[in-house]
Design a protein that fits this description.
The chain has a two-stranded antiparallel sheet with strand order 1-2. By secondary structure, the protein is mainly alpha-helical.
Length: about 110
Amino acid sequence: MRRDIYQAIADPTRRSILGLLVVQSMTPNALAEYFDMSRQGVSNHIRILTECDLVKQEQQGREIHYSLQIEKMKEIDNWLEQFRKIWETQFNQLDEILETLKKQKK
């Protein structure tokens, strides 16, 4: 079953896992060390991230290593772009107001 990537990143634990995987690929045991939950709990989060194609698994000897699928993160970035434009416009307007207030004070 494929899940929605926004469902995956809605959970703070999964966002933390993605943050850890940005730095390097990791085994489930290594990831579990960062969280106050069972290895099985972390594995459930990894499964959801894998189903969304945000994380890929790779067999290395007897261990499975998980790494971030950075290309898939582009979908999230594209969605956020519309909000960046709104934020930039609002910040620019705020800059103009502050500049006007500064001039009035002088």
